[in-house]
Amino acid sequence: MANVLVCIKRVPDTGGSVALTADEQSVDASRLGHTISTHEECAIELAVQIAQATDGTASVLSLGSDDAVEQLRDALAVGCADATLIEADGSAFGPGDVAASIADVVETRAAEGTSYDLVLVGNDAADSGDFQVGVRLAYALERPVLTGISTIEVADGVAIAHGAGPTGTEVFELPLPAVIAVQEGGVEPRYPSIPGRMKAKRAPLETIMPKRDPVGSGRVRLTLPPEQPSSVQVLGQGPEAAPALVDILTEIGVISR
After folding, report:
1. Which end of the chain, N or C, is less packed with Cβ atoms under 10 Å?
2. For residue 173, which phi and psi values (nearest 5 degrees)?
């Protein structure tokens, strides 16, 4: 049996145009919806799969405002058994603060008799690009850690994890308990069904306060990449454009002569 805690973060849905706040510390979400990262969607799927395969449980946790209950309920709707919200101003918490707060929950639950064999996080934050929480959390809990992992199986107290390496897929065996940062691409996330959403409304959701004051991220500012210029080349009109189109397709290697 493996009990898994998966940690998620409510972030702006950046599928459209992205702007920064005036202080350049975060994404301006005033005109955006909210979601979780694709890494975390895959982490939830892996947590549910592992729990089902080992007769364990999958729990979900988030740190942020009470608006994050929406994302926690979504995780409950796809198979997580219970949820915890560490209610706080997430913008004041840097990666080290987040890791420390998660570690506090893990250690408190262990003292109360609920241990987590595996803690999953997204490989990086979708809004600020931090790659730190997984490693910092493992350090705080004194557990082994892997990052950039796409699939996980658990058997006999060992996690067998696969991730992309510089020369192909890499396979790791990690003794439990452990921390793993999940990268998208290894599994297809499931989406909530109507019965799942109804069940999620009744699932237990605990709200707690952080045990420590945040130090902050120390971030100087965020920047947006420069817009890439685009150009349009008119090849012609009607049949007269065919020779020019053939030349372009040949040039980029789509066809050969």
Report:
1. C
2. -115, 120
Domain 4-208 CATH assignment equals 3.40.50.620: yes
| Residues 119 and 84 sit within 8 Å (Cβ to Cβ) | no
**What are the residues whose beta carbons fall under 8 Å from the beta carbon of 209, sequence distance 6 or more?**
86, 87, 88
pTM: 0.81
Distance between CA atoms of 117 and 50, rounded to whole angstroms? 11
Q: Where are the domains of the chain?
A: 4-208
DSSP classification of residue 81: -
Which strands make up the sheet holding 158-165, listed edge to edge? 168-175, 158-165, 145-155, 178-182, 118-122, 4-8, 58-64, 82-87, 205-208
Q: Which residue, among 154, 151, 156, 153, has the nearest Cα to 170 in the 3D structure?
A: 151
Helix (H, G, I), strand (E, B) or coil at 198: helix
DSSP letters, 37-78, are -HHHHHHHHHHHHHHHHHT--EEEEEEE-GGGHHHHHHHHHT
CA 220 to chain CA centroid, Å, is: 23
Q: For residues 2 and 147, give the distance between their C-alpha atoms in angstroms, rounded to a whole number.
A: 20
